[in-house]
Amino acid sequence: MNQQVQRLAQGGRIDRSRPLDFTFNGQTYQGYHGDTLASALLANGVDIVNRSFKYSRPRGIVAAGAEEPNAVVQLGASEAAQVPNVRATQQALYAGLVARSTNGWPSVQKDLMGVVGKVGGKFMPPGFYYKTFMAPASMWMTYEKYIRKSAGLGRSPAEADPDIYDHRNGHCEVLVIGAGPSGLAAALAAARSGVRVILADEQEAMGGSLLDSRETLDGKPADQWVADVLEELSGLANVTLLPRTTANGYHDHNFVTLHERRTEHLADCAPRTAEGARQSRARLHRVRAGQVILATGAHERPLVYAGNDVPGNLLAGAVSTYIRRYGVVPGNKLVLSVSNDHAYRAALDWHDAGREVVAIVDAREAPDGDLVGEARERGIRVITGSAVIEAKGANRVSAARVARIDIDGFRVAGPVETLACDCVASSGGYSPVIHLASHTGARPTWNDGILGFVPTLVDGVHAAGGAHGIYALGEVLADGVAVGSQAAAATGGEAAEVALPASQAIAESPACALYQVPHEKPTLRAPKQFVDLQNDVTAAAIELATREGFESIEHVKRYTAMGFGTDQGKLGNINGMAIAARCLKRTIPEVGTTVFRPNYTPVTFGAIVGRHCGELFDPERYTALHQWHVENGAEFEDVGQWKRPWYYPRKQGGKLETMHEAVARECRAVREGVGILDASTLGKIDIQGPDAREFLARIYTNKWEKLAVGKCRYGLMCKDDGMVTDDGVTSCLADNHFVMTTTTGGAAAILEWLELWHQTEWPELDVTFTSVTDHWATMTVTGPKSRALLAELTDDIDLDRESFKFMDWREGTVAGVPARVFRISFTGELTFEINVQAHYAMHVWKALFEHGKKYQLTPYGTETMHVLRAEKGFIIVGQDTDGSVTPEDLGMQWCVGYDKPFSWIGKRALTRSDTARSDRKQLVGLRPKDPKVVLEEGAQIVFDPNHAIPMPMVGHVTSSYYSPTLDSGFALAVVKGGQQRMGESVYLPMADGSVHEAEITSTIFIDPKGERQHV
Amino acid sequence: MFQIYCPYCEELREEEEFHPKGQAHIVRPANPEACSDEEWGDYLFFRDNPRGIHHELWVHAVGCRKFFNVTRHTVSYAILETYKIGEQPSVTAEPAVSESTTSTDDVRQGVRA
């Protein structure tokens, strides 16, 4: 086992009595409880954690938090537990953790693709892969596969996730995001005012910068104040503390999604609780907050200099964090390159750790703040007016090249001194974390005073502390209290006292604006100066983009891919904008900023999905007869959320029927004997009121004024553009009482459609609508023997063909229970639709089968239903229509009441010039010349198959089946002017080059006079 | 996700309970047959797409099933009022922008693009 060579003997918030073994790239290491994976890797002297995306260069850990671009790892000991895209800086170490680099093939140490980096090499411009591997175009897919493989972005597990995830709705008056000094102060102020407070923080421990601060509060280490505040907050009933919880998205109306990682600090699969219960691995909190306080702090900006990606280049603040929080010094000899005072603490911490600070290189001419003075007092060499212009080294920094620079002239202004070192830390200032504020759509504004963008805030959102550029600890705390009190007061909180702890006054000299450091060579020829480490975007690439004419920062971003990584350019974006501004000779506010979008850091699909997966993915609706269908071997089809029997395959000679065989048998049973369908899913709307009849007349195309009690009528419904939107049978139960049926899939939408017209246009009509779809079970008994069968089960309904006519309905009892029986037909055969209350359905259904044995009563499913109805030319709205088909296009003028007094919905549109054209696509039947052919649904139709390509397409097949009765394929189709082309041939060219010929026929293939339903 | 005040339920509810139904106050001509094709086409197909104040029809689909109107700002997505069918909006113009503050439009330009 390797030693923790970079671990300090003491210090840090780690527990040296709790060593933890873990594996990285197959090698076993040891860290301590309290480590992150990143701090443990640094403690073990692991320099290379990944290979870069484009150039395959070795990369090391740069940061200590969410902004880390390089140390993105694949986690998980087993296949099922694989998680890609985890930042090692945010992953708590646990015993047995297994991590791998996501990039680097075959390994991060020996990388073959590094050769490509060298070939493309000196200069691999934006668009390199496209420009180089583009020809021949057909090969791009092949190139891309291998390039992607070698680049790699982690991988998803090949096995099912063993864990569960959940969602929770949250409500509070004040949501505080970030538990650093400003967030804690704000939460304390809000909590004491009595309102409900949620405090969310993405780190393992709350406290933010105070956990590694050199400063004291009330004369004590700052983390003591953190502990005191957390103790008070955790004791308050109105406060919810959510550690390890990232606010990932800020959505409309103060709706914030929080991603809580509940067990990811314990193991790669959620462990059971002490009681043996499962617990969710992650939880998505959907919080609707009265007021939101963004206390998200700031990210340090690295300087952009040559070789700034070699392992051993770190952020100055990260150096302090690793030393003070984790007891790890990420090197032995430090050169620190800065543009501001605050970053000096990295050198002081390094010095405290007993390691050598080679030099602090400060871009300013005369820095004189307190921290600068302290460094000088310790004898640390401070080189002013200068910067590290280049870091040397292959797999680890070996030296820093330092020179005097002229910032305004963007040039090196003096001789270069080479300083031997193994770590270069840099700080180019601080960028407020404005991501969440950007999610609201508000563009941030540039603040020259702090050299950074500050958030623009919409109503109900506040920023506190570093998030809007307030950095001095005393001011941060005061700001937090003020903002917390303000937010609480806005939501009805009472004024509360919060005494601020005494903080040290630290004099700081002003920072200077430095982003890209000039090199002796011009940017395009200098060694690579990286802006976006995750996407391998260099300063040269940005300069080239501006030279190629990309002036908008959004275009520069898309051309170079800057900020497109999973880190969303947290480190690089501002530097990139500054470089674009320099090249375009504009200011940063003139160039502007790109937009950050949710999510702030990657969220696993598990957390997004929560419990909405597997059988809870979407509700399933079952009819009252579902269990019978299951027991009788039905195959099911999804119709909307309904599970409908599709067909009932039987064992024939030891073999299960195919669908084709089953459907042929079911069709024959209906045409020759009797079949039964569970039609309970049909939408049913109960319509009552004195104006019900008038309402129907307005909403349907046909007439309703004379429909008598006991009668049924088929109706067509259009939208006001004249296009068919639904159809179904409506029955008159009483003069002011009707029941409407709708298509299975359209039930909810049609109810809403009826309500829309009633509520918004015709409120004067006295009518009400109630969905009764689930109340009634519908059993369609159909076939020449259906009357004989039903007669055995009812003694109070006269089934005689003369008294109970087609399109009548009767009330009575069937199998001893109250029923409504409708003589309507969707098969063309004699049909009785039996409706009973759903809880009686199984009894009636079973009674029908008991008596049906001697008639070989055959259950059939939706497939047979489709064949039977198509043979009769009965349309299915949504299959034979598509929202561009009028009743006239369907040849259903018989169902249009042109002379009704009220101009019903859709009527006026039928005379618009476009709807009145004679060459509209019209519904017709098609008989393939070869009866064995079943045309493809959706196949395009042409009149002349020898026409030059592109052929004019004149229609398409809407429904197509094999008819056992005809022993032939047949189809319904829409064809331009088709109703005037009966008997003509059309052609259907197929993808394989073959062409089918078919004859245009009537849509009615069987029993054109409709005699069979009257037997 | 929006939070919408249903003027019938008199409660703020989540957007998931509602369906948007397009522009509000589109009145069906009383005598369709008297409309020219162009007028009928305007009624059927042409809708406003303003940058700013927009009156919309919504329905509390899985709540009380009532249709109602919403005045919404299409840039900020702020809901400025909701009101019952048959009522008229009270917010019909952008509030005047004082000189010291930036208008919402400027701040958010291009954001939803």
From TrEMBL, chain A:
Keywords: Aminotransferase, Oxidoreductase, Transferase. One of its GO terms (molecular function) is transaminase activity. InterPro entries: 2Fe-2S-bd_N, BFD-like_2Fe2S-bd_dom_sf, FAD/NAD-bd_sf, FAD/NAD-binding_dom, GcvT/YgfZ/DmdA, GcvT/YgfZ_C, GcvT_C, GCVT_N. Residues 921-1007 form the Aminomethyltransferase C-terminal domain. One of its GO terms (biological process) is tetrahydrofolate metabolic process. Gene3D superfamilies: 2Fe-2S iron-sulphur cluster binding domain, sarcosine oxidase, alpha subunit, N-terminal domain, BFD-like [2Fe-2S]-binding domain, FAD/NAD(P)-binding domain, Probable tRNA modification gtpase trme, domain 1. Residues 625-900 form the GCVT N-terminal domain. Residues 173-481 form the FAD/NAD(P)-binding domain. Belongs to the GcvT family. This is Sarcosine oxidase subunit alpha. The lineage of its organism: Bacteria, Pseudomonadati, Pseudomonadota, Gammaproteobacteria, Oceanospirillales.
Automatic annotation (TrEMBL), chain B:
InterPro entries: SoxD, SoxD_sf. Transmembrane segments: none annotated. Pfam families: SoxD (PF04267). Residues 90-113 are annotated as: Disordered. It comes from the Bacteria. Gene3D superfamilies: Folate-binding superfamily (3.30.2270.10). One of its GO terms (molecular function) is sarcosine oxidase activity. One of its GO terms (biological process) is tetrahydrofolate metabolic process. This is Sarcosine oxidase subunit delta. It comes from Franzmannia pantelleriensis. The lineage of its organism: Bacteria, Pseudomonadati, Pseudomonadota, Gammaproteobacteria, Oceanospirillales.
